[in-house]
Amino acid sequence: MNPNQPSKQNKQSSQLKGFVFKTLLLIVIVFLLDFTIGTTLKYFYFKQESGFLYRTTYAIEKTKAEVLIFGSSRASRHYNPNIFSNRIHLSCYNVGHDGNFILYQYAVLRTVLKRYHPKLIVLDITRGDFAIRQNDYERLSALLPYYSGHSEIRPIVQLKSPYEAFKTLSFIYPYNSLLFSIAVGNAEFNKQKMKDINGYVPIEKIWNGSMATADSLPNYPMDSIKINTYQSFINDCVSNNIKLVIVCSPYLFKTTNPDNTINLAKAIALKSHIPFHDFSTDTIFVNKNQLFADSIHLNNGGATIFSNKIVDKILPF
Amino acid sequence: MLFNSFQFIIFFIVVTSVYFLLPYQKRWVLLLLTSCYFYMSFVPVYILILGFTIGVDYFSGIAIENAKAGQRKWFLLLSLVANVGVLSVFKYHNFINQNFTGILNCFHVSNPIPYLSILLPIGLSFHTFQAMSYTIEVYRGNQKAEKHFGIFALYVLFYPQLVAGPIERPQNLLHQFREKFEFDLERIGEGLKMILWGFVKKIVIADRLAIYVNTAFNHSGQHTGATFLLATIFFSFQIYCDFSAYSDIAIGTAKVMGFKLMVNFKRPYFAQTMAEFWKRWHISLSTWFKDYLYIPLGGNRLSAIRLCMNLMVVFLLSGLWHGANWTYIIWGALNGAYLVIEILGKKIHLPFLSSQLPQKLVRIFKILLVFVLSSFAWIFFRANTVSDAFDIIKKIASFKGPLFYENPSMLIYSFAGIFLLLLVEMKQEFYTGSFSFMHHKSWVVRNFTYAVLIIILLVMGVFDGGQFIYFQF
Q1: Residues in chain A whose Cβ is within 8 Å of chain B
Q2: Catalytic entry in B223, B282, B322, B440
Q3: Per the domain annotation, does A253 fall within a domain?
Q4: Among this protein's residues, is B322 annotated catalytic?
């Protein structure tokens, strides 16, 4: 027997103990830093009183408006809630969210329905909403700060990846990439700058880019999860006796062929006896660059005309 | 299975744990099976292509070793034709066919050869080149033919470097599969550090920069010169961080288990000449081309004209290796041209560069020049088409229009990532012996450094980032 053997084994054993101890300590340090920074970010995230992130919190946790407008950045730029309130005589809030589509909207609807039942919901659909795009799932990260407090949105957030439940064990992860946005959102100078009108974000700009006469839309495959989510959105409104109106708001450019999403959204809506208004080819807006801020967003002037047009369609309510 | 995924972290922990529990003689079985699983997690059926390559090269290697002198080259040729054949079918068929169609159309003739609707197998160029290096080395007598089929299959399939290198040589890797690697905590720690830094480079820097780069380059008609200038600079850092991160994770993963893979990057953006840049960038591929193409063509012992021609051939093929698209071929040609100009320019004496200016300033100037030249070439590498690339260059030259950014944080995170990279790499390049957080003698400092890097990952990382750029090659 080698006399050095026990001492070598002892040395290895103490090395292993040291390694395990240091690893455990690393885990403790990471946990403490994660907890401290994550809790701080959470505090300042929910302390915001204006801006893009605040509008999400307001939509999910606070609004009690009788009329809600759902959609993407096109919704938040196209529908002026004040016009709705003045003409329908109901309170109105625009919960449109930049870069998010039907999955996000359905998650917000579920949080709203848990608190109260609005009287009217306007859902804005955009071209290509139902297309297969991984990006749309990744954008559900906008809901991560609400993941722990809202069990109703968890199944939707988990569409992003099956590991979201595990990832959200981290206190920082829900606020990943939001450090500067939270800092700016809490800054004094930003509070005035980012003021919105009940969720409506007007753009005071006139489109001076190129004027294409007609774009050709590709015949893209559609995402069954998104289509089913759209159907669930309709079903939840119907089962809760909420009047639902689905709209495709104006585009600057007409297309040579109809969009797959708009066609299908319209067919599903009509089958469920939900009114569907397609403004995407409306001649009042098409090719009228003075009404647009860019090729897909109306400016404030355009939004005013459009909001009145939509209210005309909804009235009498 | 991407390195930057939860699946991989679980896979790595399980495989490594079982690896150390097994007797060392049986570890190759585990590595072979798990490497197959790793590759099959992308497109399972493509394992058959690897099986074909492995089979041909295994038998070719033995045949080369056993054959008489005159017959050996035929077995080598068989192996090379089989490997290049696989590459040609899966990677170049449609490209060649497309160009052939273009030529025939000029004569109003239709092309009867059909296009193949197949996905390019992940990392095909990497493992094909690694397999080819084996038969070439056996032919040259530098490597004995591997008789153990399982060990040879593992040489081609070894999961850490299977899909994006480093492209190993048999002399370095094959014998390691028979070695007994102890559970060495120091080595394991070093490997884990490399993996951690690889994750930071990929998730915090490369994937963050990719957001801006993709927005600009994928909509080349909609953006301005200022935007493209910034996107080009960002892409230079993105591709470096993306690819070198993969190498770091690959080398670190292998190191944890005891394997030594070759270094693939040595801070290329601190190179002072283009020749030096290629000694620091994707070293395993550069040396592959040097050993198996450039030297057989004559190496440096040729007239200046032949030397320049050979360089152009090597770089054109290097471009083609990256992808079946004219953008890659132009990228290769540009880099070849840079080297040719550098060789010819050595004869021109620039006194103001050598005497009057301080050496530090000259050094900075040279580093910046190499960065500008390589970044210019990257435009072709990243652009979707050649005409897109020329449009982008035209726009950058005119430098008109505002700088695009969705929100200021988009740029702040991007610059913060580049700053972190430069800070670490400047320290490694210029202050090698000085203070180091990652290798500090106090484990408390080291532990805090790892913790801070993990927190940076959580705060600034892009967790929905895509796959590694080099997977497509």
Answers
A1: 15-16, 18-19, 22, 25-26, 29-30, 33-34, 37, 138, 141, 160-161, 163, 166-167, 170, 172-173, 175-177, 179-181, 184
A2: B322
A3: yes
A4: yes
Q: Into how many domains does chain A fold?
A: 1
For A189-216, give the secondary structure using H, E and C.
HHHHHCCCECCECCCCCCCCCCCCCEEC
Predicted model pTM: 0.85
> For residues B129 and B288, is the Cβ–Cβ distance under 8 A?
yes
What distance in Å separates the CA atoms of residue B126 and residue B15, rounded to the nearest whole number?
23
List the alpha helices (DSSP H) in chain A: 5-47, 52-57, 73-78, 81-88, 102-115, 134-138, 154-157, 164-167, 179-186, 188-193, 224-239, 260-271, 300-314
For residue A22, give the nearest of B412, B443, B458 by CB distance: B443
Structure tokens at B35: 């490497």
Look up the ipTM and state it. Answer: 0.79
The answer to whether residue A43 sits within a structural domain is: yes
Q: Are strands A276-278 and A243-248 parallel, antiparallel or unpaired?
A: parallel
How far is it, in rounded angstroms, from Cα B275 to Cα B294? Answer: 14
Report yes or no on A178 lying in a domain.
Answer: yes
Chain B residues with CB-CB distance to A161 below 8 A: 6
Q: Residue B398: in which H helix or E strand, if any?
A: helix B386-398
Higher pLDDT, A217 or B91: B91
- Tell me the C-alpha to C-alpha distance, in Å, between residue B426 and each of A271, B265, B269, B390, B432: 64, 14, 10, 33, 9
8 A C-beta contact, residue B198 and residue B249:
yes
Q: Is B462 on the interface with A (CB under 8 A)?
A: yes
Tell whether B10 lies on the interface with A, counting CB pairs under 8 A: no
Q: What is the domain extent for residue A235?
A: 30-312
Domain segments of chain B as ranges: 6-180, 186-460
> Model confidence over A34-58: pLDDT tens digits?
999 999 999 999 998 877 888 899 9
Shortest Cα distance, chain A CAs vs residue B19, angstroms: 17
Residue with tokens 């090719």: A287
Count A/B contacts: CB-CB distance under 8 Å.
62
Contacts of B461 in chain A (CB under 8 A): 176-177
Residue A67's beta-bridge partner residues? A92, A120
Residue B462 DSSP symbol: -
CB B469 within 8 A of CB B239: yes
Q: Tell whether B105 is within 8 A of chain A (Cβ).
A: no
**Interface contact B96, partner A, CB < 8 A:** no
Percentage of chain B with pLDDT > 90?
63
- Domain membership of residue A10 (yes or no) is no
In Å, how far from its chain's centre is CA B395? Answer: 29
Looking at the DSSP bridge assignments, the partners of residue B93 are: none
Q: What per-residue confidence (pLDDT) applies to B472?
A: 53
Alpha-carbon span B220 to A38, nearest angstrom: 38
Whether the pLDDT of residue A7 is over 90: the answer is no
Q: Are strands A254-255 and A214-215 parallel, antiparallel or unpaired?
A: parallel
DSSP B109-174: ----SPPP--PPPTTHHHHHHHHHHHHHHHHHTSSPPP--HHHHHHHHH-GGGTTT-----HHHHG
The answer, yes or no, to whether residue B331 has pLDDT greater than 60, is yes
Cβ of residue B438 closer than 8 Å to a chain A Cβ? no
State how far the Cα of B288 lies from the Cα of B282, in Å rounded to an integer: 10
Q: What is the pLDDT of residues A258-275, one digit of tens each?
A: 888 999 999 999 999 999
Q: How much is the pLDDT for B219? A: 83
- List the single residue in A with minimal CA-CA distance to B465: A138
Collect all residues of chain B within an 8 Å Cβ-Cβ radius of residue A166: 6
Q: Which residues of A170-196 are buried (b: 16+ CB within 10 A; e: fewer)?
A: bbbbbbbbbbbbbebbbeeebeeebeb
What is the rounded CA–CA span in Å between residue B294 and residue B307?
A: 9
Q: The tokens of A191 are what?
A: 């509070």
- Specify the CATH number for the domain of residue A163: 3.40.50.1110
